[in-house]
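User: Quick sanity check before I run a bigger batch. Here is a single chain. Can you write out its predicted 3D structure?
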Amino acid sequence: MHELRKRGYTVESEVPIKVYYDGVVIGDYFADLVVNSIIILEIKSASLIIAEHESQLMNYLKATNIEVGFIFNFGPTPTFRRKIYETAREKNQEPNQSA
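Assistant: Done. Predicted structure follows.
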Protein backbone atom coordinates (compact mmCIF):
# COMPACT_ATOMS: atom_id res chain seq x y z
CA MET A 1 0.00 0.00 0.00
CA HIS A 2 2.83 2.35 0.89
CA GLU A 3 4.59 1.79 -2.45
CA LEU A 4 1.41 2.45 -4.42
CA ARG A 5 0.75 5.65 -2.50
CA LYS A 6 4.37 6.78 -3.03
CA ARG A 7 3.69 6.49 -6.75
CA GLY A 8 0.63 8.72 -6.52
CA TYR A 9 -2.18 6.17 -6.43
CA THR A 10 -5.16 6.44 -4.13
CA VAL A 11 -5.32 3.24 -2.10
CA GLU A 12 -7.97 2.08 0.36
CA SER A 13 -7.57 -1.04 2.50
CA GLU A 14 -10.14 -3.51 3.85
CA VAL A 15 -12.87 -1.95 1.73
CA PRO A 16 -16.33 -3.31 2.62
CA ILE A 17 -18.41 -4.65 -0.27
CA LYS A 18 -22.11 -5.28 0.39
CA VAL A 19 -23.47 -8.76 -0.36
CA TYR A 20 -27.09 -8.85 -1.51
CA TYR A 21 -29.58 -11.67 -1.70
CA ASP A 22 -33.08 -10.98 -3.04
CA GLY A 23 -32.33 -7.27 -2.78
CA VAL A 24 -31.47 -7.51 0.92
CA VAL A 25 -27.99 -6.91 2.36
CA ILE A 26 -26.94 -10.16 4.02
CA GLY A 27 -23.29 -9.39 4.74
CA ASP A 28 -20.04 -7.83 3.63
CA TYR A 29 -16.94 -8.91 1.76
CA PHE A 30 -13.73 -7.02 2.52
CA ALA A 31 -11.37 -6.34 -0.38
CA ASP A 32 -7.74 -6.16 0.72
CA LEU A 33 -6.94 -3.09 -1.41
CA VAL A 34 -8.81 -0.90 -3.89
CA VAL A 35 -6.63 1.28 -6.10
CA ASN A 36 -8.02 4.50 -7.62
CA SER A 37 -11.52 3.02 -7.19
CA ILE A 38 -10.95 0.94 -10.35
CA ILE A 39 -8.84 -2.10 -9.37
CA ILE A 40 -9.23 -4.63 -6.56
CA LEU A 41 -6.03 -6.22 -5.24
CA GLU A 42 -6.20 -9.36 -3.15
CA ILE A 43 -3.00 -10.16 -1.30
CA LYS A 44 -2.17 -13.77 -0.45
CA SER A 45 0.71 -15.66 1.14
CA ALA A 46 0.02 -19.23 0.11
CA SER A 47 1.89 -22.08 -1.52
CA LEU A 48 -0.02 -21.28 -4.73
CA ILE A 49 -3.10 -19.48 -6.03
CA ILE A 50 -6.06 -21.87 -5.93
CA ALA A 51 -9.53 -21.79 -7.47
CA GLU A 52 -11.06 -20.48 -4.24
CA HIS A 53 -8.83 -17.39 -4.37
CA GLU A 54 -9.94 -16.71 -7.93
CA SER A 55 -13.62 -17.25 -7.00
CA GLN A 56 -13.25 -14.84 -4.10
CA LEU A 57 -11.91 -12.13 -6.38
CA MET A 58 -14.61 -12.74 -9.00
CA ASN A 59 -17.29 -12.42 -6.30
CA TYR A 60 -15.81 -9.06 -5.30
CA LEU A 61 -15.85 -7.87 -8.90
CA LYS A 62 -19.43 -9.05 -9.43
CA ALA A 63 -20.58 -7.21 -6.29
CA THR A 64 -19.06 -3.88 -7.41
CA ASN A 65 -18.75 -1.70 -10.51
CA ILE A 66 -15.03 -2.55 -10.59
CA GLU A 67 -14.09 -4.68 -13.61
CA VAL A 68 -10.41 -5.52 -12.99
CA GLY A 69 -8.81 -7.37 -10.11
CA PHE A 70 -5.48 -8.96 -9.30
CA ILE A 71 -4.46 -11.66 -6.88
CA PHE A 72 -0.87 -11.22 -5.72
CA ASN A 73 0.57 -14.26 -4.00
CA PHE A 74 3.76 -13.65 -2.03
CA GLY A 75 4.22 -17.32 -1.11
CA PRO A 76 7.30 -19.45 -1.86
CA THR A 77 6.99 -18.69 -5.59
CA PRO A 78 5.50 -15.20 -6.06
CA THR A 79 2.72 -15.25 -8.68
CA PHE A 80 -0.27 -13.20 -9.73
CA ARG A 81 -3.54 -13.60 -11.61
CA ARG A 82 -5.60 -10.94 -13.35
CA LYS A 83 -9.37 -11.30 -13.50
CA ILE A 84 -11.83 -9.21 -15.47
CA TYR A 85 -15.60 -9.03 -14.99
CA GLU A 86 -17.24 -6.83 -17.58
CA THR A 87 -20.06 -5.27 -15.58
CA ALA A 88 -20.70 -2.57 -18.19
CA ARG A 89 -21.49 -5.14 -20.87
CA GLU A 90 -23.75 -7.10 -18.52
CA LYS A 91 -25.73 -3.98 -17.54
CA ASN A 92 -26.25 -2.96 -21.18
CA GLN A 93 -27.49 -6.32 -22.45
CA GLU A 94 -31.02 -6.45 -23.76
CA PRO A 95 -33.43 -8.73 -21.90
CA ASN A 96 -33.86 -12.12 -23.55
CA GLN A 97 -36.74 -11.87 -26.02
CA SER A 98 -38.92 -14.99 -26.34
CA ALA A 99 -41.03 -15.67 -29.43
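Residues 2-89 form a domain with the Lambda Exonuclease; Chain A fold (CATH 3.90.320.10).

User: Great, the batch can go ahead then.
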